[in-house]
């Protein structure tokens, strides 16, 4: 049944239509440079969205995913600047911090039974406030200090924020990382026992528990994955832009969810795949920049995004009905 | 057990061996007594600009031994409540931004009715008198935009791109309108100021779409940094300053910045209330006191650069 109606089919058709559409209306869209810029934009949203999509397949939300990206960069930069320590130490500390937040999210959701929407909404506000408060305390300003003069900058920059040339176009490393993360997520979901567990806990947690699926471990693992990829993008932002504003990242949690939903992930869990989420992020990148390439007023972008989301939800609904009908037949 | 000892040892070596330059400098402490002054703004938390306004107000409070009650809310209705709260708690003076004059008028009138002097800052240059505020400190956004426009027009600008990083901000729209009044070919672009990567790629897309753009005008210092990452051949000018943009002006990567001196706005608002309470002074003599537009370019950057490093400019 899962093979009969693939979640990413609707998104793939939409992506193709939007791609052809912008090729037709925006001359500037027709260059290799434009394409890699779109890929870059998609990758910075898409990397976190992959994990958010998996988490949603597992039946949970993470509203703190947008600000944790900023928290990750801030922890790294401020710790190292304050103590005068190599950036590698801060990067590892930041990873530990992010994973701890992810674990806390997962643990609280599983332990209390409170919906993840509420738990992570709490985490979202705590992180947002702490980002501002701690940054002001440490640096005396609400933006982090420039990290480019601290040791370790070059090697970390090479990992998280490097770019390379193919012919005449400059491709950012995040695009490669994005493809890699999507491939790994896809492999986990389709080929491993963990993947089956994720579908099971999202579809019907109680039945899954009854047949011996470790529900708690699986869900906490998914929250950890979101934190890990949030950390990764946070590292990219820090090492590409050198300083971060403490108020950044707010609102991106919705973009991740939109990418996942547009990519065919069901909000109720149990259905979706990694390729679909990647296509969802690509659609986001294409529309956000396509409007600019076409020379239209980007004030309309959010309205466009909302329409896309509604359409995706309708397609999802249709797909689900189709799936249940086929299952009964 | 051995593994744990090894791990701890490794961590210690890593920490010791990893000490590097580029760290902080030691801060100083201060104290306050005297008048109580409420300082109320429409700051959106986390904006470097507002951080400087607040630093200025706090420095003035420290210098004048004033007890400063800072509060902020970007929502007009809630800002009005904050002003009302200050009136209720019987402060000796109120400094407030007047960004939404109609929403705040009631609270400001309540303050003046209660005999509490009010000064306006940052926004509300045309309305502060009508509301009953005594003095005003700030810059006129339209004047600032026009001065920027005139300067780049003189340098040959034909098609500048004005980058708005906050949806629906009246002040930012006014700046761009000012630029457009001096250079009719000005085009506005909306970007998501909360996401540096998105700002950069949106600008990249715009510059690729329209090769005739000769100037990029950013309306906040962090956005100027993103604009540099977007590349392109257009010249860059910006509103507001921070440490990094000041350095880039020195390096010639940014042509100039328009500074409305937020630190001064905060400092003067508090100091003017102090002088009014202590000495009956009326700064500006019934007219608004302009804190900008002040141009920062290669001719004066050497003086200003050290101040940006202290977060006072």
TrEMBL record, chain A:
Membrane topology: Multi-pass membrane protein
Major place of residence: membrane
Organism annotation: Actinoplanes lobatus
Compartment annotation: Cell membrane
PANTHER family cross-referenced by the UniProt entry: ABC TRANSPORTER PERMEASE PROTEIN YPHD-RELATED-RELATED, XYLOSE TRANSPORT SYSTEM PERMEASE PROTEIN XYLH
Name of the protein in question: Xylose transport system permease protein XylH
Gene Ontology MF terms in the entry: transmembrane transporter activity
Membrane-traversing stretches: 9-29, 35-56, 63-85, 91-110, 117-134, 169-189, 210-234, 254-272, 277-294, 300-319
One of the record's GO cellular component terms: plasma membrane
Keywords: Cell inner membrane, Cell membrane, Membrane, Sugar transport, Transmembrane, Transmembrane helix, Transport
Keyword Cell inner membrane carried by entry: yes
Function statement: Part of the binding-protein-dependent transport system for D-xylose. Probably responsible for the translocation of the substrate across the membrane.
Keyword hit for Repeat: no
UniProtKB/TrEMBL annotation, chain B:
Family matches, as CDD domains: PBP1_ABC_sugar_binding-like (cd06312)
Cellular component GO terms held in the UniProt record: outer membrane-bounded periplasmic space
Keywords: Sugar transport, Transport
Chief subcellular location: other
Ranges for domain Periplasmic binding protein: 37-279
Annotated compartments: Cell envelope
GO terms, molecular function: carbohydrate binding
Any Pfam family: Peripla_BP_4
Similarity-based family: Belongs to the bacterial solute-binding protein 2 family.
The protein, known as: Simple sugar transport system substrate-binding protein
Organism placement in taxonomy: Bacteria, Bacillati, Actinomycetota, Actinomycetes, Micromonosporales
């Amino acid at each position: 049944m899962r093979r009969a109606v693939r979640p990413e089919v609707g998104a793939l058709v939409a992506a193709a239509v939007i791609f052809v559409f912008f090729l037709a209306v925006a001359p500037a869209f027709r260059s290799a440079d434009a394409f890699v810029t779109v890929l870059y934009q998609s990758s910075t949203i898409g990397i976190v969205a992959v994990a958010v999509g998996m988490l949603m397949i597992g039946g949970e939300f993470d509203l703190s995913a947008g600000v944790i990206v900023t928290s990750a960069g801030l922890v790294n930069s401020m710790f190292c600047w304050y103590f005068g320590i190599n950036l590698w130490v801060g990067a590892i500390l930041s990873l530990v911090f992010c994973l701890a937040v992810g674990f806390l999210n997962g643990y609280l959701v599983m332990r209390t039974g409170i919906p993840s929407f509420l738990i992570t909404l709490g985490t979202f506000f705590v992180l947002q406030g702490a980002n501002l408060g701690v940054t002001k305390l440490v640096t005396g300003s609400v933006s982090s200090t420039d990290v480019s003069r601290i040791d370790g900058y070059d090697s970390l920059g090479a990992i998280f924020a490097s770019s390379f040339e193919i012919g005449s176009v400059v491709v950012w490393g995040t695009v490669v990382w994005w493809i890699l993360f999507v491939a790994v997520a896809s492999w986990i979901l389709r080929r491993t026992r963990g993947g089956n567990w994720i579908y099971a806990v999202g579809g019907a947690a109680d039945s899954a528990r009854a047949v011996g699926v470790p529900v708690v471990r699986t869900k906490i693992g998914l929250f950890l994955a979101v934190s890990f990829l949030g950390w990764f993008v946070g590292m990219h932002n820090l090492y590409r832009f050198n300083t971060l504003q403490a108020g950044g990242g707010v609102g991106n949690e919705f973009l991740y969810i939109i990418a996942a939903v547009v990519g065919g992930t069901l909000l109720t869990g149990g259905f979706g795949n990694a390729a679909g989420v990647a296509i969802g992020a690509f659609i986001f990148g294409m529309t956000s920049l396509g409007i600019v390439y076409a020379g239209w007023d980007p004030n309309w972008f959010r309205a466009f995004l909302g329409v896309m989301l509604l359409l995706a939800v309708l397609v999802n609904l249709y797909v689900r009905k189709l799936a249940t009908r086929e299952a009964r037949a | 057990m051995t593994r744990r000892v090894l791990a701890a040892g490794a961590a210690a070596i890593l920490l010791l061996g990893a000490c590097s330059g580029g760290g902080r400098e030691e801060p100083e402490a201060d104290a306050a007594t005297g008048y109580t002054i409420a300082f109320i703004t429409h700051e959106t938390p986390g904006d470097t600009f507002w951080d400087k306004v607040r630093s200025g107000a706090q420095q003035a409070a420290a210098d004048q031994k004033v007890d400063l009650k800072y509060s902020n809310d970007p929502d007009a209705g809630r800002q009005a409540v904050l002003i009302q709260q200050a009136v209720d708690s019987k402060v000796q003076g109120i400094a407030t931004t007047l960004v939404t004059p109609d929403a705040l008028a009631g609270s400001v009138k309540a303050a003046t009715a209660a005999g509490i002097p009010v000064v306006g800052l940052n926004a509300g240059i045309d309305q502060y008198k009508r509301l009953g505020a005594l003095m005003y400190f700030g810059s006129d956004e339209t004047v600032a935009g026009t001065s920027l426009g005139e300067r780049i027009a003189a340098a040959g600008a034909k098609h500048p791109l004005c980058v708005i990083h906050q949806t629906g901000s009246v002040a930012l729209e006014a700046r761009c309108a000012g630029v457009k009044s001096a250079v009719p070919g000005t085009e506005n672009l909306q970007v998501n100021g909360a996401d540096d990567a998105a700002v950069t790629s949106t600008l990249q897309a715009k510059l690729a779409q329209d090769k005739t753009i000769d100037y990029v005008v950013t309306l906040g210092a962090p956005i100027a940094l993103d604009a540099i990452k977007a590349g392109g051949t257009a010249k860059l000018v910006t509103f507001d300053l921070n440490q990094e943009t000041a350095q880039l002006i020195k390096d010639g990567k940014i042509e100039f910045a328009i500074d409305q001196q937020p630190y001064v706005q905060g400092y003067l608002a508090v100091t003017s209330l102090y002088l009014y309470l202590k000495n009956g002074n009326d700064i500006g003599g019934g007219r608004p006191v302009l804190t900008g537009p002040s141009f920062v370019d290669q001719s004066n950057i050497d003086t200003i650069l050290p101040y940006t490093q202290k977060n006072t400019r």
